[in-house]
Amino acid sequence: MSAGKTRIAEVARAAKVSTTTVSRVLNNVPTVDEANRRRVLAAIKRLRYRPNANAQRLAAGRNNTMALVIPRFADMFRSFHVMEMLKGVGTAADRLHVDLLLHVTDGRGFPNVGAAAGILFADIDGNEEQLDWALQQGIPSIVMYQFLEDLPVSCVAVDNRAAVENVVAYLVKLGHREIATITGHLRTSIGIERLDGYLKAMQARQLEVKPHYVQHGDYTGASARPLAKRLLAHEDRPTAVVAASDEMAVAVIDTAMEMGLRVPEDLSVVGFDDSPIAKFSKVPLTTVWQPMSDVAERSVEILRGRLSGSSRRPVKERLGTRLVERQSCRQTWLDPS
Amino acid sequence: MSAGKTRIAEVARAAKVSTTTVSRVLNNVPTVDEANRRRVLAAIKRLRYRPNANAQRLAAGRNNTMALVIPRFADMFRSFHVMEMLKGVGTAADRLHVDLLLHVTDGRGFPNVGAAAGILFADIDGNEEQLDWALQQGIPSIVMYQFLEDLPVSCVAVDNRAAVENVVAYLVKLGHREIATITGHLRTSIGIERLDGYLKAMQARQLEVKPHYVQHGDYTGASARPLAKRLLAHEDRPTAVVAASDEMAVAVIDTAMEMGLRVPEDLSVVGFDDSPIAKFSKVPLTTVWQPMSDVAERSVEILRGRLSGSSRRPVKERLGTRLVERQSCRQTWLDPS
DNA sequence: CTGAAAGCGCTAACAA
DNA sequence: TTGTTAGCGCTTTCAG
To answer: Is pLDDT of A3 > 50?
Structure first.
């Protein structure tokens, strides 16, 4: 009894029509006499009638419910991204009339997707088991923000490779040739793609990737600090660092300053995420903005299409990023002031 | 047809029992022969049967679905708080077996709470209309993070007053007497309570609240900047500022430094929120941590109780905060180094 | 411990 | 344009 206790029959009685007619006005079926429609509407209002959604769905046989699975302990998937994601998912859900069932999970156990016809995985990292299960159950699913090449599942991700290539191109244009990187987790496609983008971009320009140029972090500032120290203490110090996350970029800046280096005069730093800390760090961070909300919207659209029965083949898409220039990069030939 | 297309009848046939028995094992009814239970479970697995949640709920007449309403454009309700809230709501929902229907809304229109038996409002600010509607419809609702004294609705909020009183006490213990505040929006209970806490604490200690000591901001850094400038440029400059948000506190610090003041040597600053920027600001910020996730958990519990029919009277609770000491405050009698 | 049968509240043919 | 009549897929008395 999701509603109060008013049934459709009572509304029908009050409006002096059949339940069918009430159902019709409820579902905006045009073939209803205007007078009747008005009386029904009035009765609904007066009786505070709210249809029982379960009965509706059962009878109609349709189900526009999607489960949104998000990790309980968002690690790399930062909270500001979650908000963007929610905005995107929410907007699309609204527009496409889909209901969202929220599942905050620790990755263990299976999402209680009882009522859901499909599943939206936000950041599959740590939820692989659940994805497997969904796939095996044949539940239409889509994973957001991660490009799963080999799995027969739809996904919408950010074009990480192109993003980093773009960053390197930007640094090169500023005159940098000694460019190092601090990677994210390399067990996720995101981390791999960002590293790959760096490698490809360097190679394309015949720039040498010295061994110490690639430092393996895990997105956290804590992981980046010692890496930055090692990198910057090296006799063959790079003039620019591209980090796979803003947090790591900030750690690089902090470490550099502690070591007496100036940013951006002695060292250019680029982050990834365009998170709030990018604006608030000691040196406003030049970083990569990601279309978090668009990825989410697109995902809902695709899954909706899948549920409507159009195609059964997985859809895989990538969305573009944007470089946000702030103050952590500098041309190499400028006289350091 | 949320599930594939397997019906309970097919499972029953495969397991050579009645649908009733299948239903029993589905619902963990103990009175089922072990052999039968095993066969049913096997059949379920083999046929990949997933019960139709709508039919279940309709037949059983129960409804443990809560709509979670969150604003699309989270302003004061910062994203890191959203994550905490989701964690809390998710945890409680899991534990209490409630389904969460997510509604990301722009405040206009009414939440499509069709399937929901109750509503959780996260940050009612901007959603007053929707709350009114819910109340009028008699839908059990609870508002989180805002204490609505006069409305007949349950709410769980942070004890803002006590929190700020505690901050003032802390500053006084450090020797401060000239303590100013930058408030948040005063059209929300949160902003009012924080200001009130400040006023009460000052009064209780017979400390004068000079007119310019109370500056009205709106939680954003942008709003605080000019206020901070005015406050610090005043001939009768305070030695400490308590801001109603971390963003504003950071703005105060930045402004102070731009004006040649040192923090905390010349000015102590306390924030509110314990947001990520509190750690990353130029001077690590002493601030108030809020039990965001606990508020959410408690809210779900209370609403659940309400739905289970226990009490009909609104429940109103406040949860305590904690002062997180970092490096933006200093004893007044210390020799400024 | 098990099954037959009667709905849960609504929608959707099908006739009228 | 309207109402009658079957169900949607599951749970739940109530006998057995």
So the answer is: no
